[in-house]
Amino acid sequence: MTTGKINVSVENIFPLIKKFLYSDHEIFLRELISNGTDATLKLKHLTNIGEAKVEYGNPIIEVKIDKDGKKLHLIDQGIGMTSDEVEKYINQLAFSGAEEFLEKYKDTAKDSGIIGHFGLGFYSAFMVASKVEIITKSYKDEPAAHWICDGSPEFSLEPADKTTRGTEIILHIAEDSLEFLEESKIKELLNKYNKFMPIPIKFGTNIETLPKPEDAPEDYVAETVETDNFINNPNPAWTKQPTDLNDEDYKAFYHELYPMQFEEPLFHIHLNVDYPFNLTGILYFPKLSGDLQIQKDKIQLYQNQVYVTDNVEGIVPEFLMMLRGVVDSPDIPLNVSRSGLQADGAVKKISNYITRKVADKLKSLFTENRADFEAKWNDIKIVLEYGMLSEDKFYEKAGAFVLYPTVDNKYFTLEELKENLKEKQTNKDGKLVVLYAGNKEAQHSYIETAQEKGYEVLLLDSPIISHLIQKIEGDNSDITFVRVDSDHIDNLIKKDETTISKLSDEEQTGLKTVLETIVPKQTYTVQLEAMDSQAAPFIITQPEFMRRMKEMSQTGGGGMFGMGNMPEMYNLVVNTNSPLASTILNTTDKPSQEHLVKQALDLAKLSQNLLKGEALTAFVKRSFEMIK
Q1: Is residue 189 a contact partner of residue 203, using CB atoms and an 8 Å limit?
Q2: DSSP class of 501
Q3: pTM value?
Q4: What domains sit in the chain, N to C, each tagged with a CATH number?
Q5: For 113-156, what is each residue's pLDDT tens digit?
Q6: Rounded CA gap, 39 and 32, in Å?
Q7: What does the pLDDT read at residue 339?
Q8: In its keyword annotation, does this UniProt entry include Magnesium (predicted)?
Q9: Which residues contact 114 (CB under 8 A, 6 or more apart)?
Q10: Distance CA 114, CA 23 (A)
């Protein structure tokens, strides 16, 4: 038997490990199973190249609970260790890593990904154990070894009578960690961290009922058999080639990832690259609900099939964070800060690759089945529109598949819009005017007026649309977007022809004076326009520029000079060719004149969904009085 003292400058390193990583102490199981997996895969490699003259077989990793003995066993059938290797890898290398770890992270170490990167994977055991044993036998023809350490720098190392290849780690669970002797807790952790590990993981057994024989007698008693319970899928979909999977395989894997998701994903994107970095994964476009802030099912990050986190910020482009799925890469550094991640060259390349791959997939979906893509547009548009705003590389490719729907459910790309609208919607200055509505119902009267002139009206109703059209206009000097209720239709698309007002200049001045004494100045700017006599007498509009800047400010427009807090301002456009304009002007009784103006203003407000509360109640009473 050998005893010794681990050469480490810290008097007692184990309480420090536990203290620094206490918030993530559950990761010990992930780390130890990862070690067992590595040991098994190393053996596979050595047998493949002929260096290990042993039978690889069908190795598994087993997790066993001994509740009475307060022990947790982890057993692998991997490469194993000799006594010399235990001395080297457990007593020396790991502790030099431990010293480096403590020096670098003594003040802030909290990252669950750090511990394995400093050779500390095995020592995470001391986060939950008061004593740890290793019983191991190498694939080489050498005696087994038994290492014991009680959480102090002292250890013992002696021969063991183990005859089978591999390693068994025995954790004597500490009194403050007895939850890890509960079957439900271990099952939860195995499902969280090890669900897709590449080596089968056994945890407990299942009782299965054998099929009833066809010639069974009437008093036949069903036979049962005990089978091993394997908790993981060693060959998840993302590790396979896309050519080996069909749509049903992808859907099945989606539900394996998210068992509580009952809706099918809209489509998937398979990531697979091995140069200049390694990355595999599958991203799914889910059917997004209106509330984008609440998202329980997130993209999961793995390293070589080991779950790391569902916080993929900095790795997956921000606009794709609303997607679901898996990203697996050994090239993502886990022991750096978020700002370090964003500055990391490999991570930038990964993020750019994901952006490009998503754009290419969207283009192919659009090209292969446009009708299906259009049917899914409302469920994916917010992701794509956000991508156009936040990622220049995505914006460059998006013109090929981003759609602009009309209120009549026709869909155009930007180039198609230009081609289809240019004949009717080019103004006298040669600029294409794209009319759009933000709410089909609330702006119905304005839409109808535009359609009567043969104009197309888009339905652009996402919360960030003002930002997006601002960007599109900046890149296309020959096009302008104007909401259909921002002015009367003849002003929205100005042509050469002009309509003559029936009222003289003097009468128009008189009418404006009357209106400005009755209409609230703090909310409305009175504007006289000569329009068709059949057009609405009063129209309320909100200037495009002011409304757009206000919307952009409210949705994170940055330097919009505080416009988000400005009160709502509208134009009251009065049609001087309408009979009502003449009636108001010619009514000499002031109360009657005021009554006409207020009624007309309320009707205009009603058409814009602006008449609410007390004002709506007064309008209804007034209207009933008129029809008595």
Answers
A1: no
A2: P
A3: 0.77
A4: 2-204 (3.30.565.10), 237-386 (3.30.230.80), 403-497 (3.40.50.11260), 499-543+563-628 (1.20.120.790)
A5: 344 443 457 878 888 999 999 999 999 989 999 999 887 778 89
A6: 11
A7: 52
A8: no
A9: 21, 101, 105, 120, 334, 335
A10: 13
